[in-house]
Amino acid sequence: MIKKLLNIYNNKSIFFRISFIIIPLFIAMLIIPIMNFMFFTKEKKNDIYSAVNQTNHQAMSKIDDYLIDIANITKIPLTYKQNDKSYLRYLSDFNKTGDITRDFQVMNEQMFEEIFAYKSNIEACYVYNLNGIGDYKVRTPVYNILSPLDLPMFQDSIDMFGKPIILDTYQLPYVSHEKDPVYVFGISRGIVSFVESKVIGIIVVVTRTEYFQELSEDMKKSDNHRIIILDNDYVIYDTQEENIASTASKDLMEISWDSPQDEKTISIEGQEYMSSSVLSDYSGWRIISLIPEEEIFHDLEKMQLVTLLIIILLIVISLLLGFIFSFQIVHPLKKLGSLMKLAENGDFDIKVKVNSKDEIGTLAQAFNSMISKINSLIHEVYIEQIRQSELELQMLQSQINPHFIYNTLESISMMATIHNDDSTSEMAYNLGSILRYGINKTKEVVTVREELDNLEKYISLQEIRFHSVYTITISVSPDLYDIYITKLILQPIVENAIFHGMKDIRSGGKIIVTGYKTDNNLLVFEVEDNGKGMTDSLTKDLNDYINDKNNLFSSIGLRNVNKRIKIKYGDEYGLEIQSIADIGTKVIVRLPIENT
What we know:
Blueprint: H1 2-10, H2 14-73, H3 76-79, E1 81-82, E2 85-86, H4 87-97, H5 102-118, E3 122-128, E4 134-138, H6 152-159, E5 165-171, E6 183-193, E7 198-208, H7 210-219, E8 226-231, E9 234-238, E10 261-268, E11 271-279, E12 285-292, H8 293-344, H9 359-397, H10 402-418, H11 422-439, E13 445-447, H12 448-466, E14 470-476, E15 484-486, H13 490-501, E16 509-517, E17 522-529, H14 536-546, H15 557-569, E18 574-580, E19 584-592
Parallel strand pairs: 14-16
Antiparallel strand pairs: 1-2, 3-4, 3-7, 5-6, 6-7, 8-9, 8-12, 10-11, 11-12, 13-15, 16-17, 17-19, 18-19
Helix pairs in contact: 2-7, 2-8, 8-9, 10-11, 11-12
């Protein structure tokens, strides 16, 4: 295999071989920096994912701690006392009567002050009885206070029997429309009286999302680094504030929600982002970091582009120098090759200009010397060649003229008729007709009728010799007689059947010639014999032979017919040989139908 490839390589031009070596080097020069860029990009991505994941985990841990702190704040009513009077006692009475006493109101105000002191971002605190009536403290006046009976969290807080419930973000309805929108989230908890063993009220503490904003600023790796906090498909917080307290976009749904941690590239509004997210076991919230890939790899891509441009420039310069170098080698060789072609065609009045003393110059000098010697030899043998040609012409002129043979056969036929030898007369006449049919150069296309007439004359000659060995039957519809075909198609095929198909037949041989038209307007002749036939392998070899694919046979008859048909009509027409050993052989001729 290697030897075969080397032979193919050695047979190629010098320019090809030089290019074969240089071009892969140039390709490698392009591929290596691209691969380095891809590797570096992947490594940088991994590093960014690692850093962002670590930041996400830290941020989620802080959020969980913050939520836990708020949840702990909602426990204050359980233990809050004033002057040895339990807050739960007042709340229980408030739940029964629905009236807020002055003492209970004062206790609420003091407890609210204490709660507000815990976290600077706390926006409001509400305490409700089971009928949704309550007391509250808010940092900023709003249109309407939180109406708990309309919210699922109210009943959920009762049902959870003292366990905290996280409230999704919502926008405060401020009195002044000139203020920027403020979003809050919070914790609600059912206040359980362990004396009564039931929930006697609800406490709700809400805090501004400014905490998330401060946390996001610490997390950001770039100006366009986007931080999103989701509760399933609900946006708790987004650095793009217009999305807060809304349903997340479909693009964000590409993130795997079941996985505690997810890393992938996602497309948002046609822009590619590196996405890294972490799921909280405590809240069920997911924090998502989105960094535009363009921002990350912009400088890297610029560096890659500059590197590629430099490499391409170097390659162009190298190609130019390589082309000049190759031209200096190949051009003189091509010039020498073209002069050799002229010498091959008989022009020996040529000479190569020698401009160098390298190997090519030496080769050119040797060629000039060879041409000079050839010219000398030509002058020496030229007269001898002329004489030899004259002798050959004389020999050709002395050969028997086919027309002389035809005229002689006519004379023999007439003499046989005079002497009443009808058999000899017929043979001489038929042979003369066959000879005239074959040598008539002015009539290369004949009708089927003329071709069959010539075939019958040939058959009559052969039957005199082989009448007891075989019979020849012609079955061609008269409808085909006026169709024009190339002459001398059938006679060589029948001759082949006689001298090859019937070779070992002593009696009972049959040769059948049929002709017909096909539905797709083809004229088909079949010459079938019941001779010895051929094996599949031999049949294939013979079909290849008549189509010039091998030279395994010496017979030229079928090959000549097939070649003439293809030259005349095209490669889709011609002969096909079918044969079965010990059964016989069929030669099929396919021709187009021509009426003129």
